[in-house]
Amino acid sequence: MQSITNTATRYGWATILLHWLIGIIFIGQFALGFIMVRLTSQRTAFELIQLHKSLGFLLLGLIILRIAWRLGNAMPPLPASVGALERRTAPLAHLALYAFQITLPLSGWALVSVSTLEIPTMPFNLFVMPNLPLAESDAAESFWAAAHWYLAYVGIALVALHVAAALRHHFLLRDSVLTRMITPSSGGE
């Protein structure tokens, strides 16, 4: 039987599901953001922006849950075949991913909070999300729009690096780094 929690050698269902769900939403958000700002239909663009904001808040909640889960669960160590340099840089890469996955939705929240358009944010049309206590201005909106844009591109570069590293482990090093994030641990491990 598969375990919800991690073991000494593999990840459990909770870690695996959070990892892939966050990854899919994060990549989807990048694609959605890229498309929504290039549409000519104002109505479609507005609907996609609202979806983008909803998914951004969902992503923020999931990454906070993921970090809490990680802090409360032992993480399997890297295989013995992994070199010293990679052992030192892998935690930094994960920390950078977590930082960007928190900072990016927060920058989007700041952007809608300072917008002079004052369009309410309603995640999945369930409730009105209050704005952050920031002053509205065109200058602040320009700053946060640029910050959100740059953070998105840095975030997608980090995801690409993460994917490349996982593929390197699987196809070149032929170790268990990728497979243990696909196949959950069993309770008896």
From TrEMBL:
- In the UniProt record, does the keyword Heme occur? yes
Membrane topology per record: Multi-pass membrane protein
What is a single molecular function from GO for this protein?
Answer: heme binding
Task: Write the record's keywords in alphabetical order, separated by commas.
Answer: Cell membrane, Electron transport, Heme, Iron, Membrane, Metal-binding, Transmembrane, Transmembrane helix, Transport
**Cofactor(s) recorded in Swiss-Prot or TrEMBL:** heme b
Q: Where in the cell is it found?
A: Cell membrane
Q: State where it is primarily located.
A: membrane
Among InterPro entries, the record links this protein to: Cyt_b561_bac/Ni-Hgenase, Cytochrome_b561_oxidase, Di-haem_cyt_TM
One GO cellular component this record assigns the protein to is:
plasma membrane
Q: Which residues cross the membrane?
A: none
Mind listing the GO biological process terms from this record? respiratory electron transport chain
Similarity section: Belongs to the cytochrome b561 family.
Instruction: Name the PANTHER family on file.
Output: CYTOCHROME B561, CYTOCHROME B561 HOMOLOG 2
Q: What is this protein called?
A: Cytochrome b
Q: Which organism is it from?
A: Mesorhizobium jarvisii
Give the taxonomic lineage as stored in the record. Answer: Bacteria, Pseudomonadati, Pseudomonadota, Alphaproteobacteria, Hyphomicrobiales
